[in-house]
Amino acid sequence: MSDLEARIAADLAELTAHPDRHVGGPGNDAANEMVATRLAGLGFDVRRTGFDCLEWEHGEAFVEVGGERFDLHVGPYSPPCVTRATLIEVRDIEHLEKSVIAGAVVLLTNEIAAHQVMPKNFPFYNPEEHRRIIAALEHFGPAAVIAATGRDPEMVGGQYPFPLFEDGDLDIPNAYMTAEDGKLLRKFDGDLVRIRIESRRLPATAEQVVATLAGDRPGRIVVSAHIDSRRGSPGGLDNASGVATLLALAELLAGYEHGPTIEIVPFNGEDDYAAHGEILWLADNEGAMGDIELGINIDDLGWRGTVNHVSLYGCPPEVEAAVRDAVDGFPDMAEGPQWFQSDHAIFGIHGRPAIALATSDIAGFMAGYAHSEKDTADLADPALIAGAARFVRDVIGRVASA
């Protein structure tokens, strides 16, 4: 193992030392402190901007009916609830949009519970059907919502069951259960049930770190990897491996002078309902996105037994050529298909060229490990991460000299 790979292994261990790195939690604070300190020590100009966010605590949740008790998972950031009300099963949006749900305990099943609903104020992706679900719930005001969910690997990774709502802006008590338990509970449709959800929201703070290394000509290359993880997941590949790549790249950029400014951004919010860090960074860059020559985003990279993939988004011919020429020099890197479920979408939304680095088996990782307690540091291969950092350094050099 090379010295760089040994440091990467140590970084992975430190980044995953807490149970998770959710925004506002101690693991998130420790990770930002670590990265800011390291980048400053490597000669980067580091800016740390604090922001307000929500922390969340919960206890038990259950519903009782007909002498039976069904244990529930508390929906992240749900308000608390203790009440008795009629259970109403709802399988589709059209049924939800009827006043019959007012004051009821709504059991969402089948197609309406098939995919996680985007947070109501999420700025980057919010399809019409999701907006309709939120609008109906807020308009009719059920006493509580129980979602019987299956699997949705594209949106929530390996979680089963998954929370249908993960939204600190949604003020309706909610919980979730397995689809199998939902089939048992639905037998009591129309009956009076008692539901209890123990949950509370707490004010918290977090920060967004941005580090810059000045170049000698106009323009910027922005390299990002989200530093937060999903609550309850150590986030080894999602995305400690990406952050470790940023730190390795920062070492490899020692002596960088000729070219555009390099900006390293460990986005703090990709796995958070409010995307606080991304929104803060965009606000700071209002009117300045045009000077970004290339955005490089790293997420879910370095899975042992795979290779790394790079995908391209809106790149001009000279950048495409630079990236593809760089790929030829790295046997563990290949060009892969486009995917959009990470922060490189931010560059595309604002018309800037981007590339994204991830494992070649991102679908397999999402289905089996992502957003779960199984996403541990031992999934990540320091050699693949070191190779990715060297690849990004090569791309930066080629773009800078183009």
Name some characteristics of this structure:
402 residues, Aminopeptidase, 2 domains, 14-stranded mixed beta sheet, 12 helices, elongated
Write up what this structure looks like.
- With 402 residues, this protein is α/β, with parallel strands linked by helices.
- 32% of the residues lie in helices and 26% in strands.
- The chain has twelve helices and 14 strands.
- Strands 1, 2, 3, 4, 5, 6, 7, 8, 9, 10, 11, 12, 13 and 14 form a 14-stranded mixed β-sheet that branches.
- The longest helix has 20 residues, at 382-401.
- The two termini are 34 Å apart.
- The mean pLDDT is 96.
Described by the principal axes of the CA atoms, the overall outline is elongated
Number of strands: 14
Provide the helix percentage: 25-40%
CATH superfamily of the largest domain: Zn peptidases
Name of the CATH class of the largest domain: Alpha Beta
Q: Into how many domains do the coordinates divide?
A: 2
Radius of gyration using CA atoms only? 22 Å
Q: Which runs of at least 5 residues are low in confidence (pLDDT < 50)?
A: none
CATH topology of the largest domain: Aminopeptidase
What is the residue-averaged pLDDT?
96
Beta-strand content bin: 25-35%
Per DSSP, the total helix count is 12
CATH architecture assignment of the largest domain: 3-Layer(aba) Sandwich
Distance between the termini: 34 Å
Largest sheet: 14 strands, mixed
Order of helical and strand elements: HHEEEEHEHEHEHEEHEHEEHEHEHH
Structural class: alpha/beta
Secondary-structure map:
Blueprint: H1 3-15, H2 26-41, E1 45-65, E2 68-71, E3 73-74, E4 81-90, H3 93-96, E5 105-108, H4 128-140, E6 144-149, H5 153-156, E7 174-178, H6 179-185, E8 192-213, E9 220-224, H7 236-252, E10 261-265, H8 276-284, E11 292-298, E12 308-313, H9 317-327, E13 333-335, H10 344-349, E14 354-359, H11 362-368, H12 382-401
Helix pairs in contact: 1-7, 1-12, 7-12, 9-12
